């Protein structure tokens, strides 16, 4: 009879409260993650899975392009003083922002997708189109490089003015200059495709945040 090996297992809450022995593996049954015990850390050390990963794109560190750039946005909410930061995209024109982020060395060199947090600062209806494209920057690369083909998402603009909205995922895009196994920083360019007929939302659109989905091929980032 074949032998079956089962590890200790429990929900995320149970795992977070459990301190495993040094080298002990346990299974988070909610997330499907493995935890590695060290005899002192409650919850252990979470071991990343091969497969889909997410990185937040730090728009607070993004820059507007010198040519056809979006307008930087920073304002304080009236009641609770939440700071609202991002970039304002005008209607009927293509306007751009750029941001860089390091990528996991285990990135599979394939396609990515993105999602965006945005708002319409005034009552607006119609469709806004966002596009995103990217290029890998490696050691000794020239910094003036063409971006890869863009991914896009069309999103309906409606509801209460100023409320947070989240788009669906973009279509897939692959950064230019990807080299298998090479460490790189990825430069992303996000823009509202206001010149395209599919973008028919009247008025400005504010981009507040972005996150990127990509795949890795192994458990560790070495």
Write up this protein.
This protein has 222 residues and is an all-beta fold. It folds into two domains: 40 residues, Ribbon (Seminal Fluid Protein  PDC-109 (Domain B)); 165 residues, Jelly Rolls (Sandwich). It is built from one helix and 15 strands, in the order βαββββββββββββββ. The strands form three sheets. Strands 5, 7, 8, 10, 13 and 15 form a six-stranded antiparallel beta sheet that branches. The protein has a five-stranded antiparallel beta sheet with strand order 6-9-14-11-12, with no helix packed on it. The mean pLDDT is 88.
Characterize the main sheet: 6 strands, antiparallel
Q: What structural class results from the helix and strand content?
A: mainly beta
* Proportion of residues in extended strands: 35-45%
CATH superfamily of the largest domain: Galactose-binding domain-like
Helix content: under 10%
């Amino acid at each position: 009879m074949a032998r079956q090996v089962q590890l200790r297992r429990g929900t995320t809450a149970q795992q977070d409260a459990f301190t495993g022995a040094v080298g002990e593996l346990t299974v988070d049954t909610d997330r499907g993650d493995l935890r590695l015990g060290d005899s002192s850390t409650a919850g252990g050390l979470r071991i990343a899975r091969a497969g889909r990963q997410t990185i937040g794109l730090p728009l607070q560190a993004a820059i507007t392009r010198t040519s056809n750039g979006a307008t930087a946005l920073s304002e304080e909410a009236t009641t609770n003083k939440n700071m609202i930061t991002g970039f304002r995209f005008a209607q009927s024109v293509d306007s751009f922002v750029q941001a860089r982020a390091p990528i996991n060395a285990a990135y599979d060199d394939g396609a990515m997708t993105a999602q965006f947090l945005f708002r319409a600062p005034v009552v607006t209806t119609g469709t806004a189109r966002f596009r995103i494209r990217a290029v890998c920057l490696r050691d000794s690369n020239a910094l003036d490089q063409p971006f890869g083909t863009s991914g896009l998402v069309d999103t309906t603009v409606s509801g209460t003015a100023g409320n947070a909205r989240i788009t669906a995922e973009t279509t897939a895009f692959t950064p230019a200059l990807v080299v298998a196994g090479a460490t790189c920083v990825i430069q992303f360019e996000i823009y509202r495709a206001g010149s395209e007929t599919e973008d028919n939302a009247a008025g400005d659109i504010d981009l507040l945040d972005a996150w990127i989905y990509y795949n890795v091929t192994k458990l560790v980032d070495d």
